[in-house]
Here is the input.
Amino acid sequence: MKKDTIYASITKNQKTAISIIRVSGPKSSAIAKKLLKKKLDTKVAHLRKIYSINNEFIDQGVVISFSKPNSPTGEDVLEFHVHGSFAVIAKIEEELSKITGVREAEPGEFTKRSFYNNKLDLIQVEGLEDLLDAATDLQRKQANLSFMGSVSSKLELWRKDLIELGSFIETSIDFSDEILPDESIKLFNSQLEGLKHKIKQASDLAKYSKKVREGVKVIITGPPNAGKSSLINCILDENLSIVTDEPGTTRDIISSTVDIDGILVNFYDTAGLHDTKNHVEAEGVRRARELLKISDIQIRVVDGSEASWLENLNRIPKLNNLTIDLINKSDLVEIKTKKNRNCYNVSTKTNHNIKEFKLSLKKNIKRVVNKGFETIIFRERHIKITNMILECLNRIEPKDIYTTPELIAEDIRHSLTLIGKITGTVDVEDILDNLFKRFCIGK
Amino acid sequence: MIQFFDVIVVGGGHAGTEAACAAARKGVSVCLLTSNIRTIGQMSCNPAIGGLGKGHIVREIDALDGVMGKAIDASGIHFKLLNQSKGPAVHGPRAQADRKLYSYEIKKLIEGFKNIEIIEETVKKINFGSRAVAGLECLSGLSINCKSIILTTGTFLGGVIHLGNKRTPAGRINEPAVEGLTESFKALGLEASRLKTGTPPRLIKSTIDWKRLDKQPGDIIPTPFSFMTKKIVQKQIECAITRTTEETHKLIEKSIKLSPVYSGSITSSGPRYCPSIEDKVHRFSERKSHQVFLEPEGLDSLLVYPNGISTALPENIQIKMLKTIPGLEKAEISQLGYAIEYDFIDPRSLFRTLQVKEIDGFFLAGQINGTTGYEEAGGQGLIAGVNAANHALRNNQEFILTREESYIGVMIDDLVTHGVQEPYRMFTSRAEYRLLLRADNADQRLTEKGYKFGIVNKIRYKSWKSKEKNLFETNKKLKNFLLSPSELNKLGVSAPRDGRKQTAFDLLKNKGFNIKDLERIYPEIKKTDKSILKQLKIDALYSGYLKRQESDIKSFKKDEKLKIPKNINFREVGGLSNEAIEKLSIIKPETISQASRISGITPVAIVSILRHIKRTAA
Here is the structure.
């Protein structure tokens, strides 16, 4: 059975000036003939009139064709860059659907075909997903590492190390009459330790890069009327607010998501962390405590015009050393703060000291993500598997080379299988199913 | 004159004898065709059976009621369990045989089958009907018709012996080669290539200075190969060890041009793992000396086999070389060492039943498929024998062993999937499930299956069933025997910190906890056979790792069940590279699992094939 030719409008169906309709599959050249009436050279942009099958003029636009396998999906590809009116797109798609063997693409189907045609390995596909979701520059850079294959190539280095370690052990098993010299065993040990160190480093760094992907979490705590909302407005003023449509347990407490210098930051506004008898508030307080545990930076805000401001401040549990204290409403009462860079007397009304606070905030945000940039692994799935690899390697005790080398060999083999699970050389079906579901139509 | 048999086995070597006996066990009529009756069961090279990986195969052959294990138990004169200090999964049983006795034992076992007839003839031509075997013709003019043929010609196809610059067509020293057959196979579309192997000179025992040399005794209690052998009763002997010297190496380096490989006379590749001494000296020039094991060829044999100095250097060099080796200064050569080059058929043309894909009833087994070693040959012979009988019986059964149940399965899968670049030899590292495929549990893995396929006799089966029951019940006892941490402490056994009770089986999982300790804390268990306890100790030791492999094996088995239809056209699959299509079309993998092992076939390609199958089946 021949494969279907699929089409979809790549740009989401919003009103845009230009829209791209991509076609992939064996019928691409037939489609070009039917709708363009003239031949196309590959990989060259042509300005062409686009017609319906009945020779009715639809639009004029830029058309590009690719011949397999040198195309984005590995199949014959045709791209229409047309005016972005709903009418134009709808008409073209209607004409396409009339051709036998041509149908609308399912979510993620283009990427699926790229994967099937060896244009992308699994890590690259995941990187692509991240790239498409990248809202900030840092996320884009990180996603690109994946997509451009540098993650895969680093894993390949781990794999080579493991294979070398494995061969040494296998030799000691299958060639038992050759006695292993001490230097070889020392070499094995140092190579093993070296590899473990590399992998542990990647694993440690991974949790930082998670923050790049998911966003640094900044929690704003303080009693009611301390001015938390005005604070958020101050921050938003300058930075682009990013709207996400993903629901989630913490997300519905998010006040806003902001791009600060290319870093994604999620701000959580919470109810005050006071003990309270009120049932509803108590729930909010509980959630706030949960949030506190997973936050990276905490901003404590109190109303400086209240006499008990210091008491109020101390009653708010501190997260860690990444805490910024703001004594608000300096326009009403000025408070002298120590030359402590993490404590500011500000006014969200007059913007007094807000600039200094923002600088401090940025510094702290950068401290959180800085370690996480040049990492190898950052997806949950990868981190989990990497830790399993470390478990295997940590189980190896060099003295066992003499007594149970087959168990060492087993742990090395299993580690190799696990690396395969990251790149998709094992358990492909499950990973595939999960992954492509998350793509949108046209991708 | 025309005779008829169900199955003809051509060649009386290790593959041929296993094949003939296996087919006979299935009840069909068998003809064992050999150029020389006296050479049936002959060990062409090292008079030894077993080793690492090889020993595992012998156990498997025995678990399926083959003959190799029984023969070596009766004729073995020096038993050694290799890797004894390491874990049980890598123990390799090995034994040196009295060469004459081994051959005698094999012949005795063959004679035990009323339905095997031995005919002394050399095959001239094999007759193929339309893509099926019809029979063969011998040099004398005798014609034999049959339903299946198993070719186990070893090194005899187009064999050429090299000694220095002398070349003599021969299948083995002093035995003529079989000519003409390879050409007829090529005409059928089978690919043939050449490989080489070698053997050391044989020395006269009385001319060796034994007194100067370190002795190597065998194991005090020899471990039998066969599950049916209770004890080794044959007399045991000692071996000796010596080494090559710098002088030896200098001599060889000087004369290297006189060796057939280095003079360019032989271009085919030899085994990397059993190289000639000139290979070893040339390639591992940093090593100042190589070990040489002096193995007497029999209890009252006059000859010694020097293991480690396989060579094809000219006669005068071989003589000079011995003078440089301690203990061999005055040694005399009875038979010179030589290299032999021979044809083999690309095993990718075979199904896993070892039948040639294009020709019904035509089976190949042993060195003809590019393997090296008696054990590797024997394992293939057994498989081919059963399937040749199946074909003759037209019972539509296929006797196939897989990678997760046996080393024989690993070997055959490797051969038919990857082909051979150099002579294929078994190593434990070839098995993914090495912890599972142990020499000690071959019967647990295979005897039941063998019985189902009709090749395991009732006596062995009964013995196995009672062992199985014993294992099962003892296992239960061990797992139900609970001790609390305080009880353990009282008995002087360290208890785990989590305060949970431990079963006797749990305790056995620890390396340091052995059977003596078990008997101490669970005195009743002393009634159980020690061999059963030893077996369960091994199972316990590996249980953690095996559990982890369980899911791997489950998905392997699942993939094994995914059969690829025989008539699939890989060009229609879609999404396959040209290279992949080519490889798949040549190898024609039978299952998804096998396809995934072909080099260059990516998991993406596998997914594509899978979907194609599902779609076209719908």
Observations:
- The longest strand of chain A covers residues 57-66.
- The CA atoms of residues 232 and 255 of chain A lie 8 Å apart.
- Residues 182-214 of chain A form the longest helix (33 residues).
- The mean pLDDT of chain A is 76.
